């Protein structure tokens, strides 16, 4: 039971949610940081290795392109082409020279020209051997050969190798990887062979071929110094062959893998490719491949996992420290929240209990300089508003009683007046004063409505009849200089309920404040219409005169009741009282509004709810 009450309390909820939020955010932050760091670490490791590989690749590519430019020159030189055209289709060089002594000189000149071009290329020292041969393998020229003994059938030996035909017939440079040196079968000496056709200078016919041996040291000399972790692997791919690089030694080895995910987005260069792959015997590893910038040449590194694990271990320790610090912060935060929230909430609860017992005194001690203080201020304001509301309600009840008393005062002895007026009427009739008799009849009818009817609301039709009787009396005073007209939007409106004697003060105001000061004929217009629909439907009554109009100050005095110039008969039943009666019964959204333009018109509008006679009877009962 105590456990449940603790969880329901503010302190328990703060403790629980703060602890849960701290642990959740900490675990979430640690997880995000761990994976972000791991991703960043892997990206940096990939880019670091890529930079090293790309550095070797760029230098190696530059050296290899230097040699290939020399090969291209040999294949396109006009001197070489002329020499090859001369010996094309002939026998050996000795036979050709005996027939044409000039050929020997051309051979020396071609040799010198090739040598001259050879010395101009910086990386020519990696060229072990060059053979320039016609279609007849016996007519060839050999240069730069190493310490390996020369052979008389060197051109025939090269032409018989397995790599010769594919390289010779290729449309551009093609690579067959590292091959055993054809001239050295004793030791494991490998070379990179290059074979290109020589075309006639006069036609597209081939007149011979060029063979160049490139030393693998062009590549291995740089791979020796490459920083490689003990559990990393480095592969060189030439064509379709893969070679494992170990301390500058290249050993042909298959490189099989199954790609798991693509990490190319972690690389800097678009020519580089990174991936997660599963390697036989190694498991899941990160593989980085960089192109040497030459077709079919690329370097591939299987990145170290030891360095990755060491950095992850370090970061795990850092994460543990962060987690401990976050949890410590959570404990301090819980203590702080309990001190700064629980106590003020307890004070607020005590103050609200005091209010519920009827004590509405303002308590400044709960108005702190924070959000809870704003709540405390709101509670104090609420207490003050409740007190003001009660005082206002008391004042309204007092005013209502005063209004009822004033209405009661205005009802002079109607029976006595009614009988007296009947006597005056018959005397006027006997004496032939028909005007006086008619006026007494109308006045008696008004008194009859006052004396024999007690309900506060009547139908619009009945109210219009009362207003008509009042206006008829005034016509005897003003004569034909005033007139009234009625415009009712629908006959259904006649059955709507209105306050008794609500139109008379408006017509009286139109006469006294509008038409009488005008000193000219005038008209009063009474309009009735409905507005809205359903539960929001209202009855709108308006009285408009074409008199002198009134100022805004006068309008405010009439609405506020400062100007109570009612007639003697309807004393104190003025516009202000009608407005107050409407607001008391229906609320502040209803009542009387006045609009006027001095010298043109004045319009007084009554807005009350649309209530039919049946509904009004039910409401009053």
UniProtKB/TrEMBL annotation:
Please list the coiled coil stretches.
379-411
* Pfam families assigned: HAMP, HATPase_c, His_kinase
Matching Gene3D superfamilies: 6.10.340.10, Histidine kinase-like ATPase, C-terminal domain
Q: Does the keyword Transport apply?
A: no
Entry GO terms, CC: membrane
Using the record's annotation, list all stretches that form the HAMP domain: 339-391
**Classification via CDD domains:** HAMP
Q: Where in the cell is it found?
A: Membrane
What InterPro entries does the record tag this protein with?
Answer: Bact_2-comp_sensor_kinase, HAMP_dom, HATPase_C_sf, HATPase_dom, Sig_transdc_His_kin_internal
Membrane-crossing residue ranges in chain numbering: 14-37, 314-337
Write down the SMART domains for this protein, in alphabetical order: HAMP
According to the UniProt entry, its GO molecular function terms are: phosphorelay sensor kinase activity
Q: Does the keyword Coiled coil apply?
A: yes
Instruction: Give the keywords, sorted.
Output: Coiled coil, Kinase, Membrane, Phosphoprotein, Transferase, Transmembrane, Transmembrane helix
Q: What is its main location?
A: membrane
Q: What is this protein called?
A: Two-component system sensor histidine kinase YesM
């Amino acid at each position: 039971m105590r456990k449940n009450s603790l969880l329901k309390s503010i302190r328990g909820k703060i403790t629980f949610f703060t602890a849960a939020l701290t642990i959740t955010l900490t675990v979430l932050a640690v997880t995000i940081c761990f994976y972000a760091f791991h991703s960043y670490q892997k990206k940096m490791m990939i880019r670091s290795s890529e930079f090293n590989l790309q550095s070797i690749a760029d230098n190696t590519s530059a050296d290899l392109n230097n040699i290939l430019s020399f090969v291209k020159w040999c294949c396109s030189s006009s001197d070489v082409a002329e020499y090859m055209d001369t010996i094309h289709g002939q026998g050996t060089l000795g036979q050709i020279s005996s027939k044409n002594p000039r050929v020997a000189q051309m051979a020396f000149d071609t040799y010198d020209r090739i040598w001259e071009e050879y010395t101009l290329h910086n990386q020519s020292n990696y060229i072990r051997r060059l053979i320039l041969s016609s279609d007849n393998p016996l007519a060839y020229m050999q240069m730069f050969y190493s310490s390996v003994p020369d052979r008389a059938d060197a051109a025939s030996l090269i032409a018989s190798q397995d790599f010769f035909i594919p390289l010779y017939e290729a449309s551009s440079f093609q690579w067959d990887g590292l091959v055993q040196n054809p001239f050295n079968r004793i030791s494991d000496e490998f070379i990179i062979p290059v074979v290109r056709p020589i075309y006639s200078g006069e036609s597209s016919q081939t007149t011979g071929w060029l063979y160049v041996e490139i030393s693998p040291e062009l590549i291995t000399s740089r791979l020796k110094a490459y920083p490689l972790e003990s559990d990393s692997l480095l592969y060189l791919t030439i064509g379709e062959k893969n070679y494992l690089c170990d301390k500058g030694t290249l050993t042909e080895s298959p490189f099989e893998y199954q790609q798991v995910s693509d990490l190319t987005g972690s690389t800097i260069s678009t020519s580089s490719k990174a991936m997660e792959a599963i390697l036989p015997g190694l498991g899941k590893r990160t593989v980085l491949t960089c192109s040497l910038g030459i077709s079919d040449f690329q370097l591939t590194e299987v990145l170290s996992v030891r360095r990755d694990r060491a950095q992850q271990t370090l970061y795990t320790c850092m994460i543990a420290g962060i987690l401990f610090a976050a949890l410590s912060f959570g404990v301090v935060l819980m203590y702080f929240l309990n001190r700064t929230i629980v106590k003020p909430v307890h004070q607020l609860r005590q103050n609200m209990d005091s209010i519920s017992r009827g004590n509405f005194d303002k308590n400044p001690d709960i108005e702190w300089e924070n959000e809870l203080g704003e709540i405390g201020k709101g509670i104090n304001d609420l207490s003050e508003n409740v007190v003001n509301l009660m005082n206002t309600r008391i004042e309204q009840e007092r005013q209502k009683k005063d209004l009822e008393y004033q209405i009661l005062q205005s009802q002079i002895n109607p029976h006595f007046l009614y009988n007296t007026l009947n006597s005056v009427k018959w005397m006027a009739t006997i004496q032939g004063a028909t005007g006086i008799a008619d006026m007494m009849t109308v006045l008696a009818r008004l008194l009859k409505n006052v004396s024999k009817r007690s309900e506060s609301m009547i139908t619009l039709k009945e109210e219009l009849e009362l207003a008509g009787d009042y206006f008829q009396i005034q016509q005897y005073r003003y004569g034909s200089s005033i007139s009234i007209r009625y415009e009712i939007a629908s006959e259904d409106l006649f059955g709507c309920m209105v306050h008794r004697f609500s139109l008379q003060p408006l017509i009286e105001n139109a006469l006294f404040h509008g038409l009488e000061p005008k000193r000219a004929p005038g008209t009063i217009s009474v309009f009735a219409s409905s507005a809205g629909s359903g539960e929001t439907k209202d009855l709108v009554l308006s009285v408009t005169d074409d008199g002198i109009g009134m100022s805004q100050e006068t309008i405010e005095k009439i609405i506020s009741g400062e100007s109570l110039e009612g007639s003697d008969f309807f004393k104190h039943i003025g516009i202000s009282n009608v407005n107050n009666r409407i607001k008391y019964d229906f609320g502040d959204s209803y009542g009387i509004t006045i609009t006027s333009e001095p010298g043109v018109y004045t319009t007084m509008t009554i807005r009350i709810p649309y209530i039919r006679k049946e509904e009004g009877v039910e409401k009053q009962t």
